[in-house]
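2024-03-11 09:14:02 INFO worker-7 job=invfold-0412 stage=load source=structure_tokens
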């Protein structure tokens, strides 16, 4: 069956792009906000939570060999499946809206200062629909092709950025509050919640040792995040890091290339980053459509995905300031979405066990 023919390499590359794209640029802001010059501790807490949640979602996914969303659609408790599918769909929609707003804000800032947010997203969504229309296989192959186009430039610029670091700015100074560190780590986890997609993609991935095979992805995320943090703090310092929601991009764009090659390198860096955001927003629409299809099974997923992206297009083009959106988004994510991400798989699995007669 084609739906089961993803290979682990494709799944790993998809989840890396989905995890990295938004978190990488906003991460220095979060960890510095809560940890100051000792933000590296907040980063370590957030990465530890990411590892825990990643393993958690991976293990839960192993319990749904037919597919997480497939079980919700085919189980006999139709009402339960519809409610859970709707909750997941709305959650992915809200997260997709913020990702789209972030994408537009950065694009207008550095690439298209007079560009219409509606037109920017309209073009992006057209490409997303083209990639997602072919289902699991076409989407996986598309992202697999784009993977190195995103990863290699960031590896190169991080390597060059090491030589630009002012280590005095990175020195650990001041007090560190563990409670504040945990609070910051929890907020950073909100940016890492695309690891939840493992619930849906791993059951459609063939092979054994899938959980163990994902350790390499988490290790690569740790390397990238630590590198971006060091370069950001070592070039911008604490105060400048807190002036924008994309300090990760701002710091990398300052790094000169040897020989003065590509004076406007930040534009190329932005284009490479857009590949990751294409993967992330595409994932929200792809998985969101699958979850909404549990609620309305008579509708084709592609039709639902079109409506999903149209909703994101309209709601993300409202002209609101990104900082204002983030303040609302972070409260929702911290106190609602992360809790739902943790509890919903347990509730679904408990219902599955009950239906199978294991729990009397």
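2024-03-11 09:14:09 INFO worker-7 stage=emit residues=360
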């Amino acid at each position: 069956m084609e739906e089961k023919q993803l290979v682990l390499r494709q799944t790993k590359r998809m989840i890396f792009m989905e995890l990295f794209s938004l978190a990488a640029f906003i991460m220095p802001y979060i960890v510095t906000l809560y940890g100051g010059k000792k933000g590296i501790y907040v980063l370590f807490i957030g990465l530890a939570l990411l590892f825990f949640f990643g393993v958690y979602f991976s293990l839960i996914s192993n319990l749904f060999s037919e597919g997480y969303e497939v079980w919700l659609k085919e189980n006999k408790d139709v009402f339960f499946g519809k409610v859970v599918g709707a909750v997941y769909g709305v959650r992915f929609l809200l997260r997709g809206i913020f990702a789209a707003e972030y994408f537009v804000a950065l694009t207008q800032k550095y690439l298209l200062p007079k560009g219409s947010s509606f037109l920017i997203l309209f073009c992006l969504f057209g490409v997303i629909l083209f990639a997602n229309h072919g289902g699991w296989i076409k989407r996986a192959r598309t992202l697999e092709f784009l993977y190195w186009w995103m990863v290699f430039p960031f590896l190169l610029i991080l390597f060059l950025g090491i030589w630009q670091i002012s280590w005095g700015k990175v020195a650990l100074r001041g007090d560190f509050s563990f409670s504040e560190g945990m609070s910051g780590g929890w907020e950073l986890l909100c940016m890492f919640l695309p690891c939840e997609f493992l619930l849906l993609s791993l059951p459609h991935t063939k092979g054994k040792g899938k959980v163990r095979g994902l350790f390499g992805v988490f290790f690569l995320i740790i390397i990238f995040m630590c590198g971006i943090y060091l370069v950001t703090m070592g070039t911008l310092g604490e105060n400048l890091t807190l002036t924008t929601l994309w300090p990760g991009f701002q710091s990398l764009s300052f790094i000169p290339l040897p020989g003065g090659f590509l004076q406007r390198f930040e534009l190329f860096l932005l284009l490479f980053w857009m590949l990751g955001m294409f993967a992330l927003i595409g994932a929200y629409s792809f998985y969101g459509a699958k979850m909404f299809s549990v609620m309305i099974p008579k509708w084709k997923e592609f039709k639902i995905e079109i409506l999903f992206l149209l909703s994101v297009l309209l709601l993300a083009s409202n002209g609101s300031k990104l900082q204002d959106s983030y303040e609302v988004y972070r409260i929702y994510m911290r106190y609602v979405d992360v809790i739902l991400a943790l509890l919903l798989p347990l509730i679904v699995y408990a219902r599955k066990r009950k239906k199978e007669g294991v729990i009397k």
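2024-03-11 09:14:09 INFO worker-7 stage=report msg="The chain has a mean pLDDT of 90."
2024-03-11 09:14:10 INFO worker-7 job finished
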